[in-house]
């Protein structure tokens, strides 16, 4: 049962974490439009493999924090302040930028695979995200850090990421992709970080 729970949490949490329009999923959809599905799928595989490693690190951090309740409490307090500051920055001060898709050599499938790995590697969001998921669900006794369940969660996170990217590849046409790229995603990021800050703050007083 622990393995099944971890599989579900790993897949769903990863799916939700990547479903919001961002550099990775919009890159996958644009590669599909410009270069074909095979290159887009290779890009997605590269992303997903890195996400598996990032999930493992995040969950190991969560496991350590569970053993240090006082440290965890201090980190949560700091996290609330940081999330509120990040939210304020993105909502009111961040430069209005638009997503730009990096250009790679169109003649190489291998380049797209490693481009996916590189873009995923420079995205540091999964580390605190999975630490937060690990701490939260382990406190509810829904997630286990035992070896087999742990491996199940990490692998499921890769499949969840890949599934989301495949949806972007299949269902985002050129018009939809271009429209989303024109949106100012700073507001979306600010809203999400503000929501996380509020949820964490409520958890401190519950």
Looking at the structure, what is the overall shape? globular
- End-to-end separation in angstroms reads 28 Å
C-alpha-based Rg, rounded? 18 Å
Q: Indicate the multimeric state.
A: single chain
Mean pLDDT, to the nearest integer, reads 83
Question: Would you count the extended β strands for me?
Answer: 0
Structural class: mainly alpha
Order of helices and strands: HHHHHHHHH
Main sheet record: none
Care to describe what's here?
By secondary structure, this protein is mainly alpha-helical. Helices cover 81% and strands 0% of the residues. The chain has nine helices and no strands. The protein has helices at 2-19, 23-35, 37-66, 69-93, 109-121, 126-139, 147-171, 174-181, 186-205. The model has no long low-confidence stretch (mean pLDDT 83).
Keywords summarizing the entry:
206 residues, mainly alpha, 9 helices
Nutshell version of this structure?
By secondary structure, the protein is mainly α.
List the helices and strands and how they pair.
Elements: H1 2-19, H2 23-35, H3 37-66, H4 69-93, H5 109-121, H6 126-139, H7 147-171, H8 174-181, H9 186-205
């Amino acid at each position: 049962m622990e393995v099944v729970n971890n599989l579900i949490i790993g897949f769903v949490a990863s799916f939700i974490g990547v479903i919001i329009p961002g550099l990775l999923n919009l890159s996958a959809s644009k590669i599909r439009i410009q270069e074909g599905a095979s290159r887009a799928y290779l890009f997605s595989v590269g992303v997903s493999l890195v996400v598996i490693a990032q999930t493992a690190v995040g969950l190991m951090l969560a496991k350590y924090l569970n053993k240090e309740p006082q440290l965890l409490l201090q980190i949560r307090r700091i996290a609330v302040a940081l999330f509120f500051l990040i939210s304020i920055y993105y909502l009111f001060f961040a430069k209005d930028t638009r997503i730009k898709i990096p250009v790679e050599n169109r003649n190489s499938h291998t380049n797209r695979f490693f481009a996916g790995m590189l873009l995923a590697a420079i995205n540091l969001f999964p580390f605190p995200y999975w630490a937060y998921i690990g701490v939260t669900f382990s406190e509810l006794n829904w997630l286990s850090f035992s070896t087999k369940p742990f491996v199940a969660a990490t692998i499921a996170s890769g499949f969840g990421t890949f599934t989301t990217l495949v949806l972007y590849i299949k269902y985002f046409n050129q018009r939809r992709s271009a429209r989303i790229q024109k949106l100012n995603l700073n507001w979306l990021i600010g809203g999400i970080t503000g929501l996380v800050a509020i949820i964490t703050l409520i958890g401190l007083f519950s």
